[in-house]
Amino acid sequence: MRHISSLARKLGEPSKSVNMTQGGICRTILAFALPIMIGNLFQQLYNMVDTAVVGRGVGPEALAAVGAASPVTQLLLGLLIGMTSGMSVVIARCFGAGDEARMKRAIATGALLIGAIGIAVTVAGALLSRALFELIHTPEDILDGAVEYAAILFLGAVATAAYNYEANVMRAFGNSAVPLLFLIVASLLNVGLDLLFVFPLGWGVAGAAIATVLSQLISAILCLAYMARRVPQVRLARSDWKWDGALAAEHLRTGVPMAFFSSLLAISFLILQSTLNSLGSADVAAYTAASKMDTLVYQVMAAFGTAVSTFAAQNYGSGSIGRIREGVRRCTGITVAVCAGLTTFAQLFGRFFMLLFVGPEDAGILASGLMYMRTTSVLYAVLGVNYVIRFALIGVGKSAIPMLVGLSEIATRAAVTYLLVYRIGFAGMAFASPACWVTSTILCGLCYAPMMRSAEDRLRAAPAASA
Fold first, then answer.
1. What is the 3-state secondary structure (H, E, C) of 174-239?
2. Could you report the per-residue pLDDT of 16-47, keeping only the tens digit for each?
């Protein structure tokens, strides 16, 4: 009871922002990244619980249906999540520069913008999802389940947009802890609703999707209610809600490349999924289960990426390029060490991880999934370096980098698909993601020095221009 009352007191206090332009670099980045990391893992729990409950409670075909739905839903929902991440960079820069009036206008304009995009995604998802599944040759035995699962997620697109925008606004102020608390509550609720809807009620794939949407909606409502009462930075006056075209354009400049990166990444997975679907539902099930390990690593690395992006944006707003470079160096070392631990886990405990999703009687699916995990996990450290460099460049306003990385991943996945998967089958799938990580990390490395110099030159020119 003492811990609960302490938490209640904390939530009752005004939310504190974190100025990342001061203090120890490693301590500042880690303190900001860890709550995001935990939150990302809980958010991923939505999909993992859906997958595990459906796979163990309904069967391999239902597991394959949920897996086949993933790249299609990511194609559109990724637009929303990418936009909110990019828009938070604009807010973080205003915060770092100490411009509160402009920051509030940025928050209001961003809310109007992301609401409109959320409605558009819902409509597009309802109209296009079946055609997309047919385009990528989804097997007939899982087609209806995949369409049903995706349609329900698209109906919840506005809730997805609302929570991610609210969470990213708070993170722009350096507050990553409060969104985590609400996300943990929603994730635990999702587990309970999954078990209720799939087992006693027997709603199957639809039940798992409904549980996800309801949980995201509740997390959005909780976060909004907290922000309205306890976060001074978002107490907006009526004048703040006036549409600001210049800020909307700035949001789009940073948000659209991030949104398109998410969608380009989804397109690259659609190319791969189309070929995978032609191999049959058993291989789709193996990939669906095994690739959840990659997804967990993505979420861990995304936490460091968000931390570095916010760190870079705030310090860029205050004119501290040297501090940004030092932050990138230190965060790279941290992520490489974390990735080494994740690789060790995948190598030693991969079979136990697979058994979360399929039964021991599915020996072929287990063997294929384990081979996939042991191959891809070797290069997790490369992925970690990729996230640090890419998000640091986003933080200093180099929004072209996500587009370049997204295009490189499409080209690489297409090449691996046609050169390996078509020729050697499922074994070729294990080389697709590592190949993308290597090529895009090389691209990020080549871009880093010249883009950082360009950002520094722009900072030096700004005072002269204003003078």
1. CCCHHHHHHHHHHHHHHHHHHHHHHCCCCCHHHHHHHHHHHHHHHHHHHHHHHHHHHCHHHCCCHH
2. 566 777 778 888 888 888 877 877 777 676 66
Q: How many CB atoms lie within 10 A of CB 452?
A: 20
> Contact, 216 vs 47, CB < 8 A?
no
Query: Residue 174: CB partners within 8 Å, gap ≥ 6?
Result: 17, 18, 19, 20, 32, 95, 310, 314
Task: Note the Cα 442 to chain centre separation in Å.
Answer: 22
The least confident of 145-149, 217-221, 253-257 is: 253-257
Identity of the residue numbered 95 = F
Alpha-carbon distances of 297 from 44, 272, 277, 379, rounded to whole Å: 10, 19, 24, 11
The alpha carbon dihedral of 24, 25, 26, 30 has a sign of positive
Q: How far apart are CA 28 and CA 174, in angstroms?
A: 9
- For residues 158 and 178, what is the distance between their CA atoms, to the nearest angstrom? 21
* Residue 267 confidence (pLDDT) above 60: yes
Q: What percent of the chain has pLDDT over 90?
A: 10
| Exposed e or buried b per residue across 316-326, where buried means at least 16 C-beta atoms within 10 angstroms of its C-beta | bbbbbbebbbe
d(CA 93, CA 192): 39
The pTM of this model reads 0.65
Tokens, residue 50: 């859906």
Which pLDDT score is estimated for 332? 92
Angle between helices 245-279 and 60-97 (to 10 degrees): 160
Q: Find, among 123, 122, 94, the residue nearest to 108 by Cα.
A: 94
